[in-house]
Amino acid sequence: MISLTINGQSHNVDVEPDTPLLWAIRENVGLTGTKYGCGVAQCGSCTVHVDGVAMRSCAVPASAAIGKRITTIEGLAENGVLHKVQKAWVDHEVPQCGYCQSGMIMAVAALLKDKPKPTDADINSAITNICRCGTFQQVREAIHAAASA
Amino acid sequence: MNFVPKIDRRAFVVGTAAAGAGFSLGMSLPIGRAYAQGTPELNAWVVVRPDDTVVVRIARSEMGQGALTGLCQLVAEELQCDWAKVTWEYVDPSASLARKRIWGNMNSTGSNAIRQSHEYVRQGGAAARQMLVQAAANEWKVAASECTAANSVITHAASGRKTTYGQVALAATKIEPPDPKSVVLKDPKNWQLIGKPIKRLDTADKVTGRQKYSTDTQMSGLLNAAIKACPVRGGKVVSFDAAKVSGMKGVKNVVKVGDTAVAVVADTWWHAKKALDALPVVWDEGPGAKASSASIAAFLKEGLEAETPFVGNQAGDINAALAGAAKKVEAVYAYPYQNHACMEPLNATARYTAEKCEVWTSTQNAEAVLAATVEASGLPFNACAVSVVTAGGGFGRRARTDYVTQAVLIAKQMPGTPVKLLWSREEDMTQGTYHPITQCKLTASLDANNNMTGLRIRISGQSILAGIAPERLVKGRDPATFQGLNPGGEEGRLGYEIPNILIDHAMRNPHIMPGFWRGVNNNQNAIYLECFIDEVAHAAGQDPLAFRRKMMAKHPKHLAVLNAAAERAGYDKPLPKGVFRGIAQHMGYGSYVAAVAEVSVASDGLITLHRIVGATDCGYVVNPAQVERQISGSFVYGLSAIFYGSCTVKDGRIEQTNFHDYNSMRLAAMPKVETVLVPSGGFWGGVGEPTIFVAAPAVLNAIFAATGKRIRSFPLKDQGFRTA
Questions:
Q1: Are B282 and B240 in contact (CB under 8 A)?
Q2: Boundary-marking domain end, from B206, B229, B260
Q3: Is it the case that residue B15 has pLDDT exceeding 60?
Q4: CATH number of residue B174's parent domain
Q5: Residue B724 placed within a domain
Q6: Contacts with B, A 61-100, CB within 8 Å
Q7: Which phi-psi region, left, alpha or beta, contains residue B312 (left: φ > 0; alpha: ψ -120 to 50)?
Q8: Hey, are the CB atoms on B658 and A40 less than 8 Å from each other?
Q9: DSSP state, residue A61
Q10: DSSP-assigned letters across all residues of B350-404
C-alpha cells in the first residue's frame, strides 16, 4: 500500500512499488483520462504532472511519486474553470479521436509554465507526443493562442 | 507459401450482412418504435424530447474523423431544428437487426460514413419535420401547408401561433410517418447547416478526460485480460504452464483463447500483463515460420513477370505501343507492410452467461462485432448485445473483429464475470492486419513527339480480400487491388487518357494477415503511378505538371483539382534556393485530390517539409472545418507511413513491436497544410482517406527534384532520409 496525492486528494493505493504510475492512476484510483498508448514512454498519451513537471507515467514507478503532487487531466481545470490550454483546445477544435489529447494537453500546460511565450522551435522540441490523427497544426495554433490568453 | 483463402462461416455471416441479404434468421422480435430514454422516436433517426432536445441516431462510427457531427448536420438540416439542442446516441446493431436493419449499413470504412448515408439520414430529418409540423397543424386545426418550421419552432403565420418541436413531439410520434420516397429534400442552395464549419459536438469531453473510450469501460466486478497470440500467423498454442503464474498477485485465471492465443485474467490489467510476460507458452508456429522479408520479396518479384488472368484496366494494344515506342521508360517499385497503430490499442469488454452475451467496444463495424459475438458465444442473435463506444482511432483496423472474438472466448470461460481484454502495444504491432505488401513494374512508351502512348502496369502482391473476405473475390480476382487505376467508377478512377493500357495483378499472398489500412490500395497505387508519371515526364523532358495536364482533358474533375493545388502553390513561381517542389493527383472513394509539396534535403538526409498544399473536390462539403482537419491529418498519417512505416518479417513474425521501431511523425516535422476546397457539387465524396493517396507521391517527387534520386522502395528511413 502506498499513498499518492492526485489532484489534491490523497489515495491509499494497493500496488507493488514498481507498478507504473499510469496503471495505479487508471486501475487503482479509477481516473481514466490518462491513457495507455505504448507503455515505453514513446507516445506521451499517459503524460501527467509530477510536482509540476510533465512525466510519461507509463515509465514512472508509482513509488517514485510518493510524497509528490500528481496532476492528471481531470485535475487540470480549477474550480470548474478550464485551464487556458483546455480552453484553447476547445476554441481551436484540436481533438479528432482525442485519445492522445489528455497527454498532449498536459505536456503543453507544463511547457507554458516553463515558457509562457514559446516559439515554434520551443514547441517543436518540447511537444513530441504522437498523434495518429495528425492534429499537429491545430495543436501549434492552440498553443500560441493559449500563450497569448 | 501462397496463402490459400478459405471461406469460413463467419465471413459469410458478415459478408451477407454487408450485402443486406443476411440476418434473415427467423427473428421473432417485434418491429416497433424504439425509445430513447423514455421518449418515443419520430423515426429511426430522430427523437425529440419534450424539452426540445433533439437526439440524432448515429449508426456509423466516430473514430476521430468527425462523422458524428457531420451526420447530425445532415439530419438537422432537414429537420430544421435548433442546432444548440442537438445531441446524439449510437445505434445498437442488435436493435437494428431486430428492426430489419432499419439503420442500414453500420460499417465505417472507405470514407463512407457520410457519402453512403447522406440521403437516408436527411430523409429521416425531413420526415420527422413533416410529422412535427403536421402535429402542430392538427392541434391548431389548420393545414400543415400553412405552417412553417425553423429553428425548432413551428409557426402558423396567418394566426400568429407558435409552438416548439418539444411541445408537439409526443403528438407527432402518433402520426403515420411519410413514405421516405415522398419526402422532398432541400435544394443544396438552401442549405443552412450543410457546408458550414460548425463546431464538433464531441470536443468538450476530449479536453477534460471525461470522454470514455472502450478501454475506459468500468463496471462492477470487472476483471482484466492480457493476451498473447502465436507470433506467427497460422500457428497454434501447443501448451502453456499456468501453474508458473497462477500464484502471481491478482491473477484469477489463465485461459486458452481459441487455438491460437493464451490470456491471463487478473484484477488489474497490469497484473495480467506481468503474469502473461512470465507465462511459458509452447507454440506450433506452422509453415509461416520459415518466411522472411527477403523470401516474401522474392515471392513477389517472381509475380512481376508471371502469367496472370487478373486484368484491371485494358485499352488499345499495349504490346504494339511498346514495340513501336520511340522511347521506353521502365521502373520497379515496392511497398511494405504497415501497421495501423491506432492510439487506442485494440480492446473489448465482454460479459457472458448461458442466456446472454454483452459486448462493449469501439469498432468501425458494429454489425460485424455482433456477428463475431454470436459466433464466439454460440448464442442466438437476439441474446447478444453490442454497445458501441467512441474509438481512439480506427484507420481500418477496427473494421476487423478478432479482438472481439477473443474477448468473448475469454468471458465464456468465466460466465457472469465481465472481462476487459486490452492488447498491449506490442500485441497491437505484431498481430496486425497489415497494409498489404506489393511490388509494381511500370513500363511506358513515348512517341517521337514525347507523347505517352502506352502504360503497362503489373502489380504483384497481396490481396486484402483473399486474406479477410475471400467470399468477396470475383472469380478469384480482387477488384480492390486496382483502386485508382480503374477505367471507371467512384472507388478510384485513372485520371489520364493513354491510348494503350494494360494493368494487371499477379496475386501473391504471403502468410502475413492483410487488412484495409486508411486509403487502402490507393496508397501504393498512387505512389506507383504518380511517381512513375513523374519519371516519364522527366524522360520526355517536360515539366511534370504540364505533362500530366496534356493527358487529362477527358478527366476535368481530376484536372481541376490538380490545377487548384498548383495555383495555390504558385507552381509557376520560383522557389527559394535549395527548396524543391513535387506534385501528385489521384481519385478515390468518390473524391478528387491533389497535393504540392515543397521540400529541402540536407546532405545528412534530413528532409524539411517547407510547405504542403492539399486540394480536394469531394462534391459537397458537409463541414469544411472537419474536412480541413482530415486533409491535414491525412498528410501526417500518409507521410508517417512513407518516412517510417515498415513492418518487416523474420522467422515468420513481424519484427516491429512499438513506436521506437515503428515511428510516427511528430509535430516538429509538419508544416502548416494549406487546404484548398474546390467542391464542384452534385456528388458526395469521402474525405477521411483520399488525401493520403497524394501525400507521399508529392513529397517523393519533390525529393527527386531536390536530389535527382528516385526512391522506389520504402520507407524513406531505410534510404537514408529522416524528418525533424
A1: yes
A2: B206
A3: no
A4: 3.30.365.10
A5: no
A6: 72-74, 76-77, 82, 86, 89-90, 93-100
A7: alpha
A8: yes
A9: B
A10: EEE-SS-EEEEE--SBHHHHHHHHHHHH---GGGEEEEE---S--TTGGG--HHH
pLDDT surpasses 50 at B59:
yes
Q: What is the mean pLDDT of chain B?
A: 94
Its CATH architecture, for the domain A84-147, is Orthogonal Bundle (1.10)
Asked if residue B556 belongs to a domain, the reply is yes
**Contact between residue B520 and residue B480 where contact means Cβ atoms under 8 Å apart:** yes
Give the span between the Cα atoms of A128 and A149, in whole angstroms.
23
Note which residues in 123-142 of chain A have CB less than 8 A from chain B.
Answer: 123-125, 127-140
pLDDT score, position B31? 33
DSSP annotation string for B275-299: HHHH--EEEE--GGGG--HHHHHHH
Delimit the domains of chain A by residue range.
Answer: 2-75, 84-147
Which of A16, A31, A38 is the best residue to mutate to test the B interface, defined by the most B CB atoms within 10 Å of its own CB?
A: A38
Domain A2-75 belongs to what topology? Ubiquitin-like (UB roll) (3.10.20)
- Out of B206, B635, B665, closest to residue A95 by CB: B206
Amino acid B2: pLDDT: 64
Instruction: Using an 8 Å CB-CB cutoff, list chain B residues near A28.
Output: 268
Q: What is the DSSP letter of B499?
A: S
* Mean pLDDT calculated for residue range B181-206: 96
Q: Are the folds of A2-75 and A84-147 the same? A: no
Number of domains in chain B: 3
Taking the CA of residue B338 and the nearest CA in chain A, the distance in Å comes to: 14
The percent of residues above 70 in pLDDT, for chain B, comes to: 95
Model-level pTM? 0.95
B308 Cβ contact list (under 8 Å, min separation 6): B458, B504, B505, B506, B507
User: Is B503 exposed, middle or buried, given 0-12, 13-18 or 19+ CB atoms closer than 10 A?
Assistant: buried
Q: Can you tell me which residue has the cell 452467461?
A: B353
Q: What is the dihedral of CA A50, A53, A58, A59, to 10 degrees?
A: -100
The Cα of A46 is separated from the nearest Cα of chain B by a number of Å equal to 11
Same domain, B135 and B251: no
pLDDT at residue B179, rounded to an integer = 87
Clarify whether residues B264 and B140 are in a common domain.
Answer: no
How much of chain B is in helix, strand and coil states, percent to nearest 5?
35, 25, 40
Q: Name the more confident of B26 and B430.
A: B430
Q: Is residue B123 part of a domain?
A: yes
- Average pLDDT in the A32-52 region? 98
- CB-facing half-sphere around the CA of B291: CA atoms within 13 A: 28
pLDDT at residue B705, rounded to an integer:
98
Distance between CA atoms of residues B50 and B44, nearest Å? 18
For residue B588, CA distances in Å to B439, B488, B495, B529 come to: 21, 11, 10, 14
Is the backbone peptide bond immediately before B715 cis, with ω within 30 degrees of 0? yes
CB B334 within 8 A of CB B643: no
Q: Is B465 helix (H, G, I), strand (E, B) or coil?
A: helix
Cell triple for B80: 430544421
- What residue ranges in B153-208 does DSSP mark as E strands? 153-156, 161-164
* Residue from B343, B430, B670 to probe the interface with A (highest A Cβ count within 10 Å): B343
Burial of B178 (0-12, 13-18, 19+ CB in 10 A): middle
Residue B26: the pLDDT is 28
